[in-house]
Amino acid sequence: MRARVPALAIAGLFAGAALPAMAELGPCKRDARETPLCGSGKGAARVVRDTVSPDKKFALAWRDPDKDPGDVIEDDADLELLLIRLADGAVLAKTDTDYFRNPGVAANRREEFAIWSPDSRMVIRKLDVRYGTGEFTLYRIGPDGALAGNIDLTKIVEPAARARLSRIGRDPRDYMLSIGESTLGNDGTLRFPVIMFVVKKQTEVDYKVEMKVTPGKAPLHARIVSFRKTHVVE
User: Fold this and answer.
1) Considering the chain, what is the average pLDDT of its residues?
2) Do the Cβ atoms of 6 and 129 come closer than 8 Å?
3) How far apart are CA 227 and CA 225, in angstroms?
4) Over the stretch 16-58, which tens digit does the pLDDT of each residue have?
5) Please, which pLDDT band fits residue 1 given cuts at 50, 70 and 90?
6) Which of 28, 107, 114, 135 is disulfide-compatible with 38, CB 3.0–4.6 A?
7) At a CB cut-off of 8 Å and minimum separation 6, what does 9 contact?
8) What is the CA radius of gyration of the chain?
9) pLDDT, tens digit, for every residue of 142-178?
10) Prior bond to 6 cis, omega within 30?
11) First to last CA, the chain
C-alpha cells in the first residue's frame, strides 16, 4: 500500500507515465453498470462517467490492478487512472488516483474529470479533491491513436497563482488551488477560472486564465497568455 497524503500536497508529482499503446485489457463493453468495463476480472478497468471523448474512441478509466472493479475497494487501495482506447482497451497513459466509483459506494469528495478538445486529440485530466484541485494534466493523442505527449499544467498554473497572491500582499501558503470549468480548443487554447481560497474561511481571490498549449509533437509546451484577477473576497 502506498502512503496516503492529501492530493493537493502531491500535485504535479505524477505527470502520467507515457506508455506504448498495448491491448492489455481487451475491448471496453457495456455491462449492467452505468459505464463500460474494459477487460474482465482482476485488473479490469471501469470507465469514469462523463469522460468519453467526442469521437467515442477514448476515455479515462480507473482500476485496482489487484482486484475486479466490482470488488470492495478500500480507502487506501493502490488505484490507477488510465487513458484508454475503447476499441481494444489499449492503455495510452497511466498514473495514480484516489478515485473509484461502484454502485452504492464511491470515493469521498474525489472526482475525476476529462476536458476534451472537440476533435478528440487532446484531453485534460482534472482531479478534484476535498480542498480544491489536485491534478491538472493535458494529454495529446496522435493520428495513430497512441499517446503523443503529456504536460502537467499544475506546475505552471499553481506557481503563477501563488506569485500573484504575493504581489497583492497575501501569504500564498495560506491558500489552496481550485480550477473551475474549463474549455480546450483544437488549437490548444485553454481557458478556465482559478480560485485561490483559504480553507474553511470566506477568503478567496479569483482569476480568469488563458493558456496556449503547442499541439504538435512531444514534448508539449504550454504558456500563460493571460492571468487576470476578477474578484477578491476578504
Assistant:
1) 87
2) yes
3) 7
4) 444 445 557 999 998 877 789 999 889 999 999 999 999 999 9
5) very low
6) 28
7) none
8) 18
9) 999 999 999 999 999 999 999 999 999 999 999 999 9
10) no
11) 41
Return the residue matching grid coordinates 474482465. 40
Task: Determine contact, residues 191/209, Cβ cutoff 8 Å.
Answer: yes
Which amino acid is present at 179? I
C-alpha cell read off for 25: 485489457
For residue 226, pLDDT over 50 is answered with yes
The burial class, CB within 10 Å (0-12 / 13-18 / 19+), for 180 is middle
pTM here is 0.87
> What ranges do the domains of the chain cover?
7-233
Residue 206 has what pLDDT?
Answer: 97
Reduce the secondary structure of the chain to three states and give it as a string: CCCCCCHHHHCCCCCCEECCCCCCCCCEECCCCCCCEECCCCCCEEECCCCCCCCCCEEEEEECCCCCCCCCCCCCCCEEEEEEECCCCEEEEEEEECCCEECCEECCCCEEEEEECCCCCEEEEEEEECCEEEEEEEEEECCCCCEEEEEECHHHHHHHHHHHHHHCCCCHHHCEEEECCCEECCCCEEEEEEEEECCCCCCEEEEEEEEEEECCCCCCEEEEEEEEEEEEEC
For strands 176-179 and 79-85, give the pairing.
unpaired
Residues 94 and 82: beta-carbon distance below 8 Å: yes
Backbone angles phi, psi at 210, to 5 degrees: -125, 130
- pLDDT at position 219 over 70: yes
